[in-house]
Each structure stands twice: as C-alpha cells, then as structure tokens.
Amino acid sequence: MEALHPNVRVVWAAVGAVLAVALGGVVAAADHLWLSVGPVLGVGVGAVVLPGVVLYVVALYRTWRYEVQADALYLERGVVKHVETAVPFVRIQHVDTERGPVERLLGLSSVVVYTAGSRGADVEIPGLDPADADALHDRLRRLAVESEPDDGV
Amino acid sequence: MRRLHPLTGLLRTGQYALYGLSVPLFFMGAVLGLLGVDVDAGLIIQTMGLGGLVGGAFGLASYLRYRYEVRAETLVVTEGVLARREREIPVERVQNVDVHQELLHRVLGLAIVRIETAGGTGTEAKLNFVSGSEAGRLQEEIRSRRADLAEGREPGRDEATAAGTPEESADQGGGAATTLFALTPRDLLVYSVTEIRPAAFALSLLGLPLADRVIADLLVTLAGPLGGPERLSLAMTVDEALAVALVAFPLVLLGGWALGAVLGLLGYWGFQLGRRGSDLVYERGLTTKYSGSIPLSKLQTVTVTAWLFQRPLGYAGLRMETAGLGSQRAQQDGAPSAIPLAARDRVWSFAAAIEGCEEAPEIQRPPERARRVYAVRYLLAIGVVLAVGLAYDAAVGTFTRWWVPALLVLVAPLAAHLKWTSRGYALGDDHLFVQRGFWRRRTSVVPYRRLQTVARSRTLFQRRLELADLVADTASSFALVGGGAVAHDLPAETAADLRDRLREELQTSLGAAAPARPTAGTAEPSES
User: Fold this and answer.
1) Which of residues 12-51 of A touch B (CB under 8 A)?
2) A65 touches chain B (CB under 8 A)
3) Cα(B100)–Cα(B314) distance, rounded to whole angstroms?
C-alpha cells in the first residue's frame, strides 16, 4: 500500500484555509448586518475552524492508501466515512492526469480513473509526484486495454 | 435523410413565432414600463410583429434543418439553424427506444421518440414529432439492425439491401412480439391503489394551499379541538400551525393516494410486455401512451419491488435497469417497468428466467446490533427535534406543545425493528442479491459479470460497532438517483470478505465469457 505525497496536505490545507477565511468573512458580514457583536465573532469563527481544518487534513492524509493490485486498483480513504474501493482494470473507461494551479506550484499531480458505474464514483488519486502519476496513468491504461469485455454499455 | 412529421413544421413555426413576439412585449412593455420609460404602443406592436416573423422563420428553419436516418450501423441526426450539429449514434450502443404520445399527439397522429445511450447526461436523440407509424418503424428498425450486428450478420450497406433486412430478421424470431405478460383489469386496480407515487403526494401537498375554501374551512373546523387557529394565515402561532399540520397530514395522504391511484390507472391501462427478438417491448397508458424497448443484452440489474400494501397480498413488481437514462424517466418514481404487479412467485420465476438467477433467495439480515443502532438513531433524531422546539419556545414562546414529537419515541423501537427486517443480502451462484426498504422493499439482483466497482464503507459509528456497508456498483442508471445496490450494515468482516469475493466472481465470470486475459502477476510489465 502506498501513501500520497506528503505535500498534498499543503494543497488540502490551502483549500481548507480559503474556506475557513471565507466562512469567517460570511459570519463577520452577517454580524455586521444583523447581530453587531463585533469583528471578534468572524475572526473567532475563523480561528476555531482553521485548526479543525488542519487536524482534518492530517487525519485524512493518514487514512489515504492506494495500491495497484492483481486485478484492480484499490483505494482507501476517509475520516468520517472510511471507504475502500476496488476498481477492476477491465472496468476502466479512461484515465486522466490532472494538475491544478496549487498542485503545480507544489509539484504534484492527480490521476482520475473513470468507470461506467454511477457517475459520482469516478475515483481520483490526488497528490502524486508527476513522474509517478504518469507511470501510474500508463500502467492503468495498459491494464485497462488488455481485455475489453462487454459490460452492456 | 428523413424529415420530421410535416405538422412539426407548422407547430414549431407557431411556437417560435410566439416566443419571438413575446420578447419585445415583455421587454418593452413590462421591463421598460417598470423602469418608467415611456414607450409608444405602436412601436411595441411593430417590434412584436417583427419578432414574430423572425421567430417563425427560425422555427421553420429548425424544422427544415432537422433530418435523421437509420444507416447500416448508425443513426444519424443533423440539426441546428445557427450552430449546426451532426450526430452519429452507433446502433449497437442504443440502450432504449422510447415512444411517448400525449392525448393531443394521438389525435394528430404524432409521437415523440427518445433514443437513449449510456453516455452523456440526457437523451441522445429526441425526435419530436414523427408520425405514430414512423415511431413504430424506427423502434423496429433499430432493434433489427442491432440484432444483425450482434449476430455478426452483414447489415445492409445500401438502401436496397437495407430494405430487405426487417423481413429477414422477422423470419429469425424478430417481427411480431410474443406477449409475455399482460396486466389483468383486476391487477391493474390493485396496482393503482397499492403503488405509492411520491410525486402524487408532492402534488397533493402543493395543491393544499390552493385548495377550495371548503377544504380550508374543514381544516379549521377539524383543527379547532386541537387548539387550531381562527382562520388559516401566515400569522398563525406554531401551536396553531402544529394543530393544522396534524389534521392536514391525513388529508394530504388521502389526496396523494387518490391522485396516485388515478395516475396509476391512466398510466398503466392496457399494460403489455412482449418479447421481440432479444428485446423486451412494453406498451401502456390510456390517455398518454408509452411504449419502449429494453434490450436484454444490456440489462445491468433487475429489481423486484413490493410496496408495503402489496406484500401481505402476495404481490410484487419487476423493474429492469439498463444504463440508459430513459429507463428511469419512463418509469416515473422508479415504478416497475417489466411487470407492474403480479403474484410474487411469478415475478421471481420471470426474473429467474431472464437473469438466470435463483428464485427468492434466502436473505441474510444484518446482525442484531444494527437494530439497536437504528433505534438509537431515531431517538437521537427525535431528541434533536425536541431540543429545537424547546429552544424556540424558550426564545419566542408560542410553541408550548414542543413535547408533541416525544410521542414518536413510542414507535421508534418498532420502526427500528422493521428497518432491520427489511435489509439484507444473499449470494447466488452468479448473482448478488441486495434487499432494502421498508415502505417499498427492493430486492436487486446484480449479476457478478455486470459489476463495475466494489466498495466497502464505514462511518465513524459503524466502525465502533464493526459494521460496514457494501456497495456493488453497476452501470445501471438507477444508481445515479440513489437506487444503487447497497447492502447496509453487514458485519465489517463479512463485508470485507464479500468485497474480495465479488472481485473474484467478476474476474471468473469475465474469464468464462471473454477471451482469457493474462493472469494478474504476468499482466504487470516492469515499469520503466
């Protein structure tokens, strides 16, 4: 089982921090309009949420594992709801490599695997070293094309 | 290339002319009027005339530009006035061909044909309108072309040979449908009154505020003894609103049930299921007629459904799930498509004949600790509602009966027990059976060979009690709307074993059906 690149925590934390600041801003605005408690409220909410985000990111990173197994790509992740998914190679429709702006800044890449199953279940492996991501992408693609049975779609 | 029915041209011209002339009316009349800009009435009328002409011309052009044709291996549709599009749909990839005729369409001899594939987020091609006979011809032609391709027969390469194809396949078991199932009038009646239609309840609820004075007076009279208001208004206190809600609730239920029964009666009038080659074909409906095809080769999952009131009568229904989005729209509220209602044994033997699965397997329930979890969950939810009510009363003071939801505590254990008895799973030789739902019990039959991904998930609470959900995902379009096959609250160990077992079963079933692929160890070339 392989872990993600440690830097992915920075990506997640950055996203979380933006959300925390935005939430603080919304609370501050609501306070300004209706409650008039003072700017302390918005700052306080932000200050409470931010460490929560950090803790969550650390915990999430610890739960993330993936492995290319004999017949399937296997992933485990989730803090509140822990999900272990097996994506059989024969079911892979296509594979994408993605690099968002923050990921590029930190030298990371994501691999996204699509199946014909319920559309929400497409799986993403974030936080990979770009070279690893490309290797994984190629490997999954090779394994996927080896057989192409009819799955009725 | 064929055009749509000529009446379509007329209807579209009229429709777009109406759009065209309403834009100036809305913009110049309403918006500028509100802004206080004075506009000359004559100018508005002139612009409306111009808009109507442009709109009408656009409508006519859109009709003239729309052409379609069934070719050897594809259905081709070209359309668009300004942005033009040519779409080719491989016939092999067509999931469903649904035909839909409202009452007015039938008077005019028109029909809407929807062609569904697994891709995309909507209907792949919607032909509105074609003539009723053309709709039937399209259904039949797509079906026979697909059958030809599946059997490796050379499909007609040009018009001359293509014209011969339908008769040829008719000899080979295509042609006329053999009837497999027809809904008897008695069963139609039972179906209409026992099938619950959530949409009908929503309509009934929405209709309540619009209801006649008589109903409003009735509500006030009935709610009186419970501390209801003098009259219905938004200024009611929460106590009064609660009293009204308590008497309105059975009324809404009754209204929704009656409305649902009428919808069921109209929608499933004359239901017939037949077989044509390798497709199931159905037709139903009194005022609005529906007909459609379900290719058996594309079946992802079949689900036996039974509403609460159907179970003691020994009835059930059968739903066919494909990857086409239409299969779920054509069956509003997830109503069964293949058999609306029949004796439970008959439904299961039908499912077994189609899927090759066991009949009525022995369902394994979740462990008993799951039942305690459900009870605790219900009690917690009631607690939250009580806390909110109490807090509201403390703050505003008009909700003295905040304790009313506490009465639900009495039924919580029963509810937990019923939920527990509704859930479970079973393993067959080639299928996974997953059962869930108390009001509408659904037993899904998932062939191992149709599995897409397999997942085990555990929430924080499930982990403490060593329970887990097992998700057996297929390409069925029902999985998108929460109808996926999920076995809830198995022992965590069992779920892990099942997850591994399903993976193996998928590989085994594919190995038997498809050319053998190299075993995993050798399939992994060294990375470089």
Assistant:
1) none
2) no
3) 32
Number of Cβ within 10 Å of residue B251's Cβ equals 17
Q: Kindly list the residues from chain B whose CB atom is less than 8 angstroms away from the CB atom of residue A148.
A: 514
The stretches of B396-464 forming alpha helices (DSSP H) are 412-422, 460-464
Which residue does chain A place closest to B301, by CA atoms?
A152
Name the residue in chain A with its Cα closest to that of B482.
A118
With vertex at residue A35, the alpha carbon angle to CA A24 and CA A41, rounded to the nearest 5 degrees, is 35
**Residue-level length of chain A:** 153
Q: Which chain A positions have a beta carbon within 8 Å of B460's beta carbon?
A: 80-81
Helices B238-268 and B198-207, packing angle to 10 deg: 130
Instruction: Give per-residue pLDDT as tens, B147-188.
Output: 888 777 655 444 434 444 444 444 444 456 789 999 999 999
User: What confidence score (pLDDT) does residue B335 get?
Assistant: 64
d(CA B339, CA B330): 14
C-alpha A124/C-alpha B473 separation (Å) is 17
Q: Which chain A residues are closer than 8 Å to B518 by Cβ?
A: 146
Residue type, B133: S
Encoded amino acid at B403, one letter = W
Q: Which uninterrupted H or E stretch holds B96?
A: strand B94-101
Residue B159 at interface with chain A, using a CB cutoff of 8 Å: no
CB A143 within 8 A of CB A89: yes
Tokens coding B110? 């028109």
- Smallest CA–CA distance, residue A28 to chain B, in Å, is 23
Per-residue pLDDT, averaged over B348-355, amounts to 93
Give the whole-angstrom CA distance, residue B388 versus residue B396: 12
Out of A69, A117, A153, closest to residue B479 by CB = A117
Q: What percent of chain B has pLDDT over 90?
A: 49
Cα-Cα-Cα-Cα dihedral sign, residues A77, A83, A89, A93: negative
Interface confidence, given as ipTM, is 0.87
The rounded radius of gyration (Å) of the Cα atoms in chain A is 20
Alpha-carbon distance of B8 to B130, in angstroms, equals 8
pTM: 0.84
**Distance from the first to the final alpha carbon of chain A:** 32
In angstroms, what is the C-alpha Rg of chain B? Answer: 28
